[in-house]
Amino acid sequence: MHQFTTEVEELAKEVLEYSLIRLRTDPPLDGPKTAQELYEAAGNTITKAGLGGHETLKLFKDVLATACISTDHPRYLAFIPSAPSEYANLFDLVVGASALYGGSWLEGAGAVFAENQALRWISNLAGLPASAGGVFVQGGTIGNLSALVTARAHFRTKRSDVTKWVIAASLEAHSSIKSAAEVMDVEIILIKPDQNGVLQGAACADAIDKYHSENPTHQVFALVATAGTTNLGIIDNLKSIAPITKERGIWFHVDGAYGLAALCSPKTQPLFAGIENADSLIVDPHKWLFAPFDACALIYRNPEIAKVTHLQKAAYLETLDDDGEWNPSDYAIHLTRRARGLPFWFSLAAHGTDQYAAAMDQTMDIAKHAAQLIKQHPNLELLMEPTLSVVAFTRKGWQMADYQKWSDKLLADQIGFVTPSSHHNQPILRFAIVNPWTKESDIAEILATL
Ligand SMILES: *Cc1c(COP(=O)(O)O)cnc(C)c1O
């Protein structure tokens, strides 16, 4: 079946050469172009006769790739960057070449076994029981939605008197929680965090009890805590929130898409005390665990509940559920899936967990150093000491338009990629540092332009 002609052989060399150059050297930051500019440079690429492998690759290298920002560039500090290890990236090439199917044990036992060990590492760090388990999904958005759908399904089996299901979360919760509520057509109540942006158990108890007394037929089925807000890296008080959920029989979900990665450093692990009581949690290895896009680890305390919720039943699938083995498809909103956790697993297995902790500490040290430089900078004000690896600050006298202009120029000059955000309706700048290759000198270079 495989027809490795000399032409394919040639292309293989070119593809590998390009991939290795891309991985070996700091790539240029690059930046977006308009659709018009791209059309002028690339034309219509889909043709009757085909362009041929060599020409199509050339078009990608010269035109399309240069219009994509390198998210692993050491001075890409916007949003949440990516920082896959070399091992993870190289193994992604293997995954791509292997036609692995990651949905069922029958088809992908070896891949699923490896993914599950990587999930077990996270689950153990969180202190969940040995019976916990889950699946790698596309991202935190699908992870959060899958967990919340599981939670609601669980409570639906217990209560038939409820007219409206409700999610409780912090005002600072990630947009994907609000989006999940929309998709699920449930209500969401947003609870005010304390003056430091931390959601506290007592505030949750007050808000939920008040809501229930005012809306006797509505039921909060899940409370979502954030373990590392995307904007500022703030960790909700999991220890005080957990008992609030237990006392009320509410599902406790922890959204740690960005921050829970810091569980792997003994220095920061204690910040997440209380996580061991979570009914479900997520963390994105594509954010701060040195894995390529796209991988979110979704873990349930009791995966059986997730399976009852998400297992798809169809005549052609029945054979998969016979053996009692672990079928990753059953634990989230998906069926077909690539073994997207494997690059993460490979990197973790090859490097060992000590190196993960060290790389994590390295990024947090740079964040602390950046905070120091900002405090010494005559034009800048640090918003707060970084809890994890997000450093937020303001430039004296600047309005949003000034920030945006600076950000655009920083990218145009190919110095860095840092975008404005906002906090309490005031514009801010933030560095999200997840890349162990980001050096103190990179931070200094960006700060020199402010
Ligand atoms: C990034 C993030 C998400 C969404 O994850 P995606 O992988 O982008 O879908 C959810 N919650 C938090 C706290 C995040 O940082």
Number of strands: 11
What's the order of the H and E elements?
HHHHHEHEHEHEHEEHEHHHEEHEEH
Bound molecules: pyridoxal-5'-phosphate
User: Kindly, what is the distance between the CA atoms of the first and last residues, rounded to a whole number of angstroms?
Assistant: 58 Å
Summed up, the domain count is 2
In the CATH hierarchy, what is the class of the largest domain?
Answer: Alpha Beta
Q: How many individual helices?
A: 15
For the sheet with most strands, the description reads: 7 strands, mixed
Helical content class: 40-55%
Rg measurement, Å: 23 Å
Q: What overall geometry do the principal axes of the alpha carbons give? A: globular
Query: How do the strands of the widest beta sheet line up side by side?
Result: 1-7-6-5-4-2-3
The CATH topology of the largest domain is what?
A: Aspartate Aminotransferase, domain 2
Low-confidence stretches: none
Q: Beta-strand percentage?
A: 5-15%
CATH superfamily of the largest domain: Type I PLP-dependent aspartate aminotransferase-like (Major domain)
Mean pLDDT, as a whole number?
Answer: 97
Q: Architecture of the largest domain, according to CATH?
A: 3-Layer(aba) Sandwich
Would you kindly provide a written description of the structure presented here, covering whatever features stand out?
There is one protein chain. With 450 residues, the chain is α/β, with parallel strands linked by helices. It is built from 15 helices and 11 strands. The chain has helices at residues 6-24, 35-42, 53-64, 86-97, 105-126, 140-156, 175-184, 201-214, 238-248, 285-288, 303-310, 342-351, 353-376, 400-412, 440-447, and strands at residues 133-137, 164-170, 187-191, 218-226, 251-255, 280-283, 296-300, 380-382, 390-395, 420-423, 426-432. It has a 7-stranded mixed sheet with strand order 1-7-6-5-4-2-3, with helices on both faces. Strand 8 and strand 9 form a beta hairpin. The longest helix is centred in the last third of the chain and has 24 residues, at 353-376. The radius of gyration is 23 Å and the shape is globular. The protein binds pyridoxal-5'-phosphate. Keywords: Decarboxylase, Lyase, Pyridoxal phosphate. Pfam families: Pyridoxal_deC. Belongs to the group II decarboxylase family.
